[in-house]
Design a protein that fits this description.
Blueprint lengths: L1 E10 L2 E7 L4 E5 L6 H13 L7 H5 L10 E8 L2 E8 L5 E8 L6 E3 H13 L3 H6 L1 E2 L14 H11 L11 H12 L8 H55 L2 H133 L6 H24 L1 E5 L6 E5 L2 E5 L4 E5 L3 E5 L3 E5 L3 H23 L5 H29 L4 H17 L8 H63 L2 H32 L1 H38 L2 H66 L5 E4 L5 E6 L2 E4 L5 H18 L8 E4 L7 H13 L6 E5 L12 E4 L1
Parallel strand pairs: 3-19, 3-20, 8-18, 18-19
Antiparallel strand pairs: 1-2, 1-4, 4-5, 5-6, 6-7, 9-12, 10-11, 10-13, 13-14, 15-16, 16-17
């Protein structure tokens, strides 16, 4: 199988992408998510899924948010055929298969037929080798057993020298396998021939089942129609019997109805008479109730009057006691007030005395505070702040000027003048100077003019360097002058003295403030002044305060207060008791008045009732109504006896149920007759003869299909059995296949790793189980990811190298060698390039730098 080109449109993230593959190595590169893996998936999708499918896998490849149909087209060879295969899913579903080269060149198929033809061709290929020749991104690095690869087996047979010939020199197993292939797939599941035969058997069995069901349904319809006919006859007979049973009941029912009407009228008369009796009895009961109510009201009124009189007698002495207690309580309160006033005056006098002492103390405190505040104000007014940094700067500047003057004088020119004869006078810069025998030295820092009056004048100028130094010196002097002037000092010494004085005054000011704060003890002067004013005002208001014995007055006030409290408590209790008695008396008075009204109304109601009907008249009315009621009851009982004699309610109920039963029978008979007519019409419309003929035909077809399947199964199982025997024979030789497969893989591995100790262990399924290097044997599943990936690539290259060109399939690598170091990466790439017999190799990568060593490869950039 060789893949020539692949085109995908609207497939996952691919809008449109076409790739043409070379015969040797093709590198397809692109950024992550450029669609490399999706291209491989697109080819698998093309082979596996019908265009008419709408399952989840098909829907999953449609681009998100786009209402378009995914499309895939590929040109490839499969067996002796080169085909172009195209499918579109979900929208305008299409399948097209065109044979470009080979035995069927120029032919084409469409729709499901195209899919089925390609599927048959694909299943005829070595799909085990096709799947094992891939190393895909994000799949587990596992070793696939290759023993089921027919192409590799054939290649290894040649390598091992195992060739079994028949008389025509054609391998027996191959011929037997070809026969088995007619019946089975490569995986030895039942193939299309057997499936079609089973399908024909199943279809024939389904036809027999359908025909049998149709015949059974027909027979069931006939049976149901017969049952309906029998039901009609049965119900007609039952209806006749019910009519015969109804006839003798009619006369008895007439008598019963007449008796029932009489009973109904009698029951009305008895009910009316009973109402008269009940009314008369109610009137008599009401009269008795009025009599009892009047007597009860009279007795209750007498009892309440007796209670009221008793309460009046009990209340009189209690009121006298309350009056006496009130007078005593008043006298005790007056005494208590006199003592309380005296005590209050004594307390105010004592407090005003202490207040005067507090006033003197606060006035003295404020005097001291004012003195300290005045002194603080004087010190603060005399302070002239001197910044210590300024003092430091002036001192440094003075020192720099002294140094500069010394340096200037030392380096400047000197004028030395001496009088040669007696004293002489000269003018130095206009100043008269007397010269004597001792030299008069003058440093030349600026232009110096010397004049002998009336004789000569000369000027001496300093050197240029001295002039610059002098300029700097003058600038420093000016800066010092300005600083002293800004701070009000005539000299540096005066400024330092002013700073010392300022610091001393600050310390003194801090001490004065601290003394003032300690003097107030946390209070403010304003608070003390407010307290002083308040105390003076209060003392001035205590003009009526008198001195007294506070302890004696307090004891006397306490004693009198207790007496007042005790007396008022007793008075309060008595008042409460009197209030209760008054409330009880008022309640009794009210009850007496209410009961008097109740008694009066009861007597009036009884009198009015007796005026309307006397007690004797009510007795006579009740007796007359009772007698009439007894007579009507006797008449009702006589009518009931007559009804019982005619059969009673049982007869009427029996008659009614018989009528309903007959009506139900007639209704059901009509329904059955209607159902019978409908079912007969349906049965008449059915082709009873055709149903039987169809059953006979389908039964014959089923027998023929079963015989055909049995014949095919017999041939297939025989061929399969022979193949299994030959395969067992071949498997015995497969152990010899391991050696050439191991040899090919080890040769490739030793060249790649540049290590002659490289080796592998291979099981009978031709799966690599261990890697050996430098004497260390490591199971495949315990190798590092990079080592697994490298060994997997070598296995696929070795397999591709062994199989024949006609059986070869593309070797595909998807984003591999990401876990390999640079040295092994280059060696594996070199192995891919040097293995020219591996056929078509397709590499998908996001990093084509890894495969830069493949100089002969075809490069495609997505």
């Amino acid at each position: 199988m060789r893949l020539e080109s692949l085109t995908a449109r609207n497939f996952r993230g691919i809008d449109s992408q076409e790739v043409t593959f070379g015969d040797g190595i093709t590198i397809v590169s692109g950024f992550n998510e450029a669609g490399k893996t999706s291209l491989i998936e697109a080819f698998d999708h093309l082979i596996e899924h019908k265009a008419t499918s709408n399952n989840g896998k098909v829907r999953s490849v449609q681009p998100v948010g786009k209402d378009v149909g995914p499309e895939v087209e590929a040109v490839f060879t499969v067996g002796p055929h080169k085909v172009r295969y195209f499918k579109r899913w979900l929208k305008s579903k299409t399948t097209e298969l065109t044979f470009l080269e080979g035995p069927r060149r120029g032919q084409s198929e469409t729709g499901d037929a195209a899919h089925n033809v390609l599927t048959d061709l694909w299943e005829g290929m070595d799909t085990t080798l096709w799947k094992a020749s891939r190393l895909m991104q994000a799949t587990a690095l596992e070793v696939s057993p290759l023993s089921s690869s027919s192409s590799l087996q054939k290649a290894l047979s040649v390598q091992a020298g195992e060739v079994i010939d028949d008389t025509s020199s054609t391998p027996v197993l191959t011929r037997v396998s070809e026969i088995v292939d007619e019946f089975y797939t490569k995986g030895r599941a039942e193939g299309k021939l057997l499936k079609d035969a089973r399908k024909r058997v199943q279809e024939a069995q389904n036809d027999v089942t359908d025909s049998t069901s149709a015949l059974e349904a027909l027979e069931a319809d006939i049976a149901a129609l017969t049952a309906l006919e029998e039901e009609i006859n049965q119900r007609t007979g039952d209806l006749k019997l019910e009519h015969e049973r109804l006839a003798p009941l009619e006369e008895q029912v007439t008598v019963a109805h007449a008796a029932k009407a009489t009973i109904k009228e009698s029951e009305k008369t008895v009910a009316s008479a009973q109402k008269d009796v009940d009314s008369a009895q109610a009137a008599l009961d009401a009269r008795s109730l009025l009599i009892a109510s009047a007597k009860e009201a009279e007795d209750e009124l007498a009892a309440l009057k007796e209670k009221r009189n008793s309460a009046r007698e009990d209340a009189a002495p209690l009121e006298k006691e309350i009056s006496d207690l009130a007078a005593r309580a008043k006298e005790e309160r007056e005494k208590h007030k006199v003592v309380s006033d005296l005590l209050a005056q004594a307390n105010r006098f004592d407090r005003s005395k202490r207040a005067r002492e507090d006033i003197k103390a606060m006035e003295a405190l404020l005097t001291k505070y004012e003195a300290l505040t005045s002194e603080i104000a004087q010190v603060t007014a005399g302070l002239s702040p001197i910044d210590p940094k300024t003092v430091e700067k002036v001192t440094d500047l003075e020192r720099e000027i002294e140094i500069a003057e010394t340096v200037a004088k030392a380096g400047a020119a000197q004028i030395s003048m001496v009088a040669l004869a007696g004293d002489r006078h000269v003018l130095l810069d206009g100043e008269d100077i007397s010269l004597g025998e001792s030299p008069h030295n003058i440093p030349v820092l600026t232009d110096v003019t010397v004049e002998v009056p009336g004789e000569l004048r000369f000027t001496v100028s300093p050197h240029a360097t001295s002039a610059e130094a002098l300029s700097r010196l003058e600038a420093q002097r000016d800066e010092l002058k300005y600083l002293l002037a800004d701070n009000g000092a005539e000299s540096v010494k005066a400024l330092r003295s002013a700073r010392v004085f300022f610091e001393e005054q600050e310390r003194k000011l801090a001490a004065l403030k601290e003394s003032r704060t300690d003097l107030l003890d946390g209070k403010s002067a304003d608070d003390i002044r407010d307290d002083l004013a308040t105390q003076k005002t209060w003392v001035a208001e205590q003009g009526d305060a008198k001195e007294g014995d506070i302890d004696a007055l307090t004891a006397q006030e306490k004693e009198l207060s207790g007496q007042v409290s005790d007396t008022e408590a007793v008075l309060s209790a008595k008042k409460a008791e009197a209030e209760t008695a008054r409330n009880q008396l008022a309640t009794l008075e009210g009850r007496v008045e209410n009961q008097r009204g109740t008694h009066s109304r009861a007597v009036t109601a009884l009198a009015e009732a007796r005026e309307r009907n006397s007690d004797e008249e009510l007795d006579k009315t009740l007796a007359s109504a009772s007698k009439a009621l007894d007579q009507h009851i006797a008449e009702l009982n006589a009518a009931k006896e007559k009804l019982e004699e005619s059969g009673g309610d049982a007869l009427l109920e029996d008659h009614e149920s018989t009528l309903k039963h007959i009506a139900g029978l007639e209704q059901r008979l009509d329904e059955v007759r209607r159902q019978y007519g409908q079912d007969k019409a349906v049965l008449d419309s059915k082709n009873t003869v055709g149903i039987q003929q169809k059953l006979d035909a389908s039964t014959s077809e089923m027998q023929r299909a079963e015989q055909e399947l049995e014949s095919l199964l017999s041939r297939a199982e025989s061929a399969k059995l022979l193949e299994e025997v030959l395969i067992r024979h071949q498997q015995a030789a497969h152990r010899k296949y391991i050696a050439p497969f191991r040899h090919a893989l080890e040769e490739l591995g030793r060249a790649t790793y540049q290590n002659p100790t490289f080796g592998v262990d291979i099981d009978e399924e031709l799966a690599v189980t261990h890697r050996i290097m430098d004497g260390v044997l490591i199971p495949f599943d315990q190798l590092s990811t990079g080592a697994k990936e490298q060994l997997s690539i070598l296995i696929k290259l070795a397999t591709a190298q062994l199989v024949s060109d006609e059986d070869a399939v593309p070797v595909m690598f998807d984003d591999t060698l990401g876990y390999s170091d640079r040295r092994r990466l280059h060696r594996v790439v070199s192995a891919i390039e040097n293995n020219t017999s591996a056929g078509q190799v397709i590499i998908f990568t996001a990093n084509d730098d890894r495969f830069a060593g493949l100089t002969n490869a075809t490069h495609i950039r997505l």
